[in-house]
Every structure is written in C-alpha cells, then in structure tokens.
Amino acid sequence: MAPKTSISEALGGAKIVITCGAGGVGKTTSAAALATAAVRHRGGKVLVLTIDPAKRLATALGLSSLGNTETRVGVPEDSPDGSELWMAMLDTSASWDDLVRKHAPDADTRDRILANPLYRNITQRFVQSHDYIALERLHDLNASGLYDLIVIDTPPSRHALDFLDAPARMAEFFSSSLLRWITLPYRVGGERVGKLGYLAAKPFYQIADRILGSQFLKDIAEFFLLFQTMYAGFVDRSTAVTALLHAKETTFVVVTTLDPAPANEADFLLAELNKRRLNVGALIINRVMDVNFAEAGSVAAAERLVEPRQQTIVRAVKAEPVLTAAEHRVATAMAVNHLRFAAAANLHRLVRRRLRASGPTVQVEVSEQPGDITDLQSLVELGAIMWPEPLATRST
C-alpha cells in the first residue's frame, strides 16, 4: 500500500480519530480543530469527546461548560449541508451510573450497586476507572451509529496508553486471586467454596477485620460480588473495543511540540502504537519556531550587539555614543533573547529531523499562533492549517 501523503488521505475515511501526546502541547485544541476541519471537508455528523480531565475543550469553543451529554455547536458556514458538530466531556461518575443502569443483570442488582456506600468512591478513585469507562463510552457511541466521525482527546501521553490497556487490566482485576480472597467468606452461602479455601482465607480476614472493620469488608465484598455479575459483559465489550481500536477505520494522531521532553514522549508513543499494530495516521507538530531566528546573518548581528566593546562605540564626528545607555540595555536584552531563540531553533531543527525519520509519512507543522483559541472561527483557522487541502467544490 502506498504511503499516505496528506491529512485528507490519513483521516478522510476514518470513523474514529484518537489524538494523544504529552500534556501542554495543544492536544485538546488540535482535536477540536481537526473535527472542525473534518466537518468542512467531509460533512456529516462529527463528535469531539475529551476524556482529559482538564477542561479546555469548552474554553476552546467559547462555551461556559461541557458535560457528559453531547452538546451541538455551530458549524462553519462553508460546511456541506446537513453537517453537525457535537462536543462532550467525559463525566466519570455519570458514565459509570449509565453503564450500571444499562448492563446490570436485573433491577435489584442495579439498585444495590448504585446504593453501595463504596460504589461512588471506588469508581472515582479506582485505578483504570476513568480510562475504562472512557472506552465503554467510545464503544457505545460507535455502536449507536449516530456519528460519522468521533474524535477522541485522550489524557496526557503515558496515560493515553493506560486508556488503551484499560479493558485488559479491568478484566484481569475482576478475575484476580485478590478479589477471590476478598469475597470468599461472602460467597460461602451461595457457592460451593471448599472448606480448605475458607480456612486459608480466615487469617487474612482476621487481620483485615481488626484494621478495616467488618462493615468495610462487607461493603467492599458486596460491591465486587455485585460487579462480578457484570463480568461477562465487561469482557465482551473489552474484546469489542480492542477490535475497534485495531480497525482500519480507526486512526491515531500524535500531537507534540519540538521541545525535547514532549518530542521524546511523541517518540515513545509512536513506538508503542506501532508495537501494538495500531494505525498512526498523522503527526501534528505545534508551535514550530521561525527558522529565521537561526539565520546566520541575524545571529551574527545579535552577537555583535552583546559584545562589551559595543558600549564604547562613538560617532567619529560628534564623539557621542551610538546608543544611549538605556537604548543599549534594551538592544542588548533583545539580542540576548534572539540568541536564545536561535539556539532553540537549532535544537528544534534536530528534533524535527528525528521525528521526520521515525514518525508517520503525514506530518503537519503549525507555527505559534497569536492569542488563544476561544471560538469557532479560531478553530476553523487552526483546522485550515492542519488540514490545508482545498475544500471540495460544492454545487449551488
């Protein structure tokens, strides 16, 4: 298969686009801008879902807030007829409640899970809880068939890998020996548990009872026993999500800057995504510096300005300083800053070369943008940089 050469080729046929990258590289606004560009180029119904707990997506659209329920926002004027742009931000608690209501085996189990004293605390704080429920949400949204394209904004970098690994880890936990030990005394009445196994667990429970209290043990055991009634559904949906992530219609976009730390994270992510045989469609490099900072003539001029001998330069005729003391301080500070930018630009050049060699064939560079992204129009402008191909001609 010939390598892709444009964003249109990389994302044009995708049904799910998952953006990932280090924190602070513009990942959330990149996800929203790509979705906005997709509406203009592809049309249809497009959803952006952020699972990053940081609440920047609403700000990027000038909205007061975003919640778990999808919110319809305006579309660019040049979008195809019938186009729709929707946004949502994952609410972990609300999504867990929805999952329990939808997949509990019966009304009694549903109500007992929701009423369990530890349910809310565990689902908010349990490792993998946020990541797992995000994939449950993606599974449901995709299965609904309501959207032609879903763009996912993931948590920063290595947490994005937790997001990908969450289904397997959740299934592993619910079948773990630890859970069997915690729930063993409470399963004796309803299951054929061997006496030897019960006696083996008894010392553990005697110690745990003294430290945690019997009511706490009972509540946590009841919670996991109830949740285990949904175990088969967890496994089935986890398998479906894993297949969805590997589907040809799912594309990953890595977002980075050329600063060393985020670029190293991008290298790590690209390697991990490739190791998992996931489809990496594009690399977006934000805040690319002007190469003119490192131009030899401007660097030489800046170096001359910061030389100490410049302080004694006088005009031949009037015997007056070329610059006043205040002017010289300002010029020197500007020259020093220019040299710092030149050093950074040279470093960025090396990092860019490395990313070009290791990254996907489609790479988009975005220069530092003036001001913040605060409304739909600024998202349209940013999206036009990321997706620069001409819009399809529309009949009138």
Your description of this structure?
The chain is an alpha/beta fold. It is about 55% helix and about 10% strand. It contains 16 helices and 8 strands. The protein has helices at about 5-10, 25-40, 55-60, 90-105, 105-115, 120-125, 130-145, 160-175, 175-185, 195-210, 215-230, 230-245, 260-275, 295-305, 325-360, 375-385, and strands at about 15-20, 45-50, 70-75, 85-90, 150-155, 250-255, 280-290, 365. An 8-stranded mixed β-sheet has the order 3-4-2-5-1-6-7-8, with helices on both faces. Helix 13 (about 260-275) links the parallel strand 6 and strand 7. The longest helix has about 35 residues, at about 325-360. It is elongated. Residues about 190-200, about 205-215 and about 310-320 have low confidence and may be disordered.
Q: Return the average pLDDT rounded to an integer.
A: 76
pLDDT under 50 segments (min length 5)? 188-201, 203-213, 309-319
Structural class: alpha/beta
Q: Judging from the principal axes of the Cα atoms, what is the shape?
A: elongated
What's the total number of strands?
Answer: 8
- By DSSP (H or I, 4+ residues per run), the number of helices equals 16
Q: Give the helix proportion (percent range).
A: 40-55%
